[in-house]
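User: Here's a structure from my thesis project, written as structure tokens. My advisor, Dr. K., wants to see whether a designed sequence matches the one we expressed. Can you design one independently, without my sequence as a hint?
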């Protein structure tokens, strides 16, 4: 198969895990290989993904080769594949816009973004010159303007988009219409980890409905030590994130909970956790005879590799849609991999529909 020419907006922990995974899963791989749902998808192997452009704003990454920049501070995710190929890609300076929260200046260099003293490149021109086919958006949470900037750049350059952030592009009617009009695929919004807090919470909530018990109230609190958790200390940046995560769980219930009976969202920044995310979850419910019961769960995962397991399929589905001449929001892969897709489905249903779509039905 041909290569999938990939552009990356935001060379952080998620980008690091994604590129490490591309090198880690050298063929031949099988469905027995941990971490892969589709070793091959629509004829594309993971190693068919070839980075051709990258954008960031941090001075420790801008101007450096991509294979070095993904390991530069403040990145702190687990390194499971140190040796990366020479991609021939230099990280370009992107526009800062609202990508850096003001409070980050109060934290040490090892934890926070440090904006490069460089002029932003012409992103559209770089995308065109590189031949990029798919752009993965890894902007920090709360970067509404920055995500929209890269969405517009994709439209202007003729590039498909995978929006891993909780800024509504694929699920926003106006943006969806623009991608449809340009016949460009868009997948989004807000990536669900492979086996993380959201998918576990959704599954438990749905299971309670299917088993006839009544969920009365629930919460999900998360802590972590990466730049995303530091970024999210600014509460004003969390509006879309809370909507995305809350609607994701509510969508699995036959009757949604009242707004005061559900609380889902980040809790705090714990520096020494680094890229490890710890989730505390509680579900209070009633069974036969209205007898009360509750469940509490603690989940600890390495955040960025967990999301890369889904992004790797999104990239290949975006390319497959380009091959098939399909534009606009890709419903099946979005419902399966994203917290806030254009249409919420039960995860089991989304999986069946996705496999049918991949097969061309």
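Assistant: Designed independently from the structure alone:
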């Amino acid at each position: 198969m041909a290569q999938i020419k990939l552009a990356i907006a935001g060379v952080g922990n998620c980008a690091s895990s994604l590129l490490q995974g591309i090198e880690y899963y050298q063929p031949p791989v099988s469905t027995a290989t941990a971490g892969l749902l589709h070793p091959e998808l629509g004829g594309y192997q993971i190693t068919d993904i070839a980075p051709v452009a990258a954008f960031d704003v941090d001075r420790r990454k801008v101007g450096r080769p991509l294979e070095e920049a993904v390991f530069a501070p403040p990145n702190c995710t687990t390194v499971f594949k140190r040796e990366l190929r020479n991609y021939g890609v230099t990280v370009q300076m992107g526009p800062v816009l609202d990508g850096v929260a003001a409070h980050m200046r109060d934290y040490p260099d090892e934890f926070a973004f440090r904006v490069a003293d460089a002029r932003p490149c012409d992103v559209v021109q770089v995308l065109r010159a590189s031949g990029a086919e798919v752009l993965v958006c890894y902007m920090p949470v709360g970067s509404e303007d920055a995500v929209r900037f890269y969405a517009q750049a994709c439209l202007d350059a003729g590039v498909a988009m995978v929006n891993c952030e909780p800024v509504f592009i694929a699920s926003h009617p106006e943006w969806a219409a623009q991608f449809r009009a340009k016949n460009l695929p868009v997948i989004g919004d807000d990536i669900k980890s492979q086996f993380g807090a959201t998918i576990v919470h959704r599954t438990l909530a749905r299971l309670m409905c299917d088993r006839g018990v009544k969920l009365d109230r629930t919460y999900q609190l998360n802590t972590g030590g990466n730049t995303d958790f530091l970024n999210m200390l600014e509460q004003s940046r969390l509006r879309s994130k809370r909507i995305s995560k809350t609607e994701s769980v509510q969508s699995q219930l036959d009757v949604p909970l009242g707004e005061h009976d559900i609380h889902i969202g980040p809790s705090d920044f714990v520096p020494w956790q680094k890229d490890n995310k710890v989730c505390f979850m509680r579900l209070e419910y009633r069974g036969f005879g209205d007898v009360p019961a509750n469940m509490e769960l603690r989940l600890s995962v390495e955040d960025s590799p967990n999301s890369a397991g889904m992004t790797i399929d999104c990239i290949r589905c975006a390319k497959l849609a380009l091959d098939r001449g399909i534009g606009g929001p890709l419903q099946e892969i979005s419902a399966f991999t994203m917290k806030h897709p254009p249409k919420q489905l039960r995860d089991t249903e989304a999986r069946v529909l996705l496999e049918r779509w991949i097969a061309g039905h």
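When you compare it with your expressed construct, this may help: Residues 66 and 138 are 15 Å apart (CA to CA).
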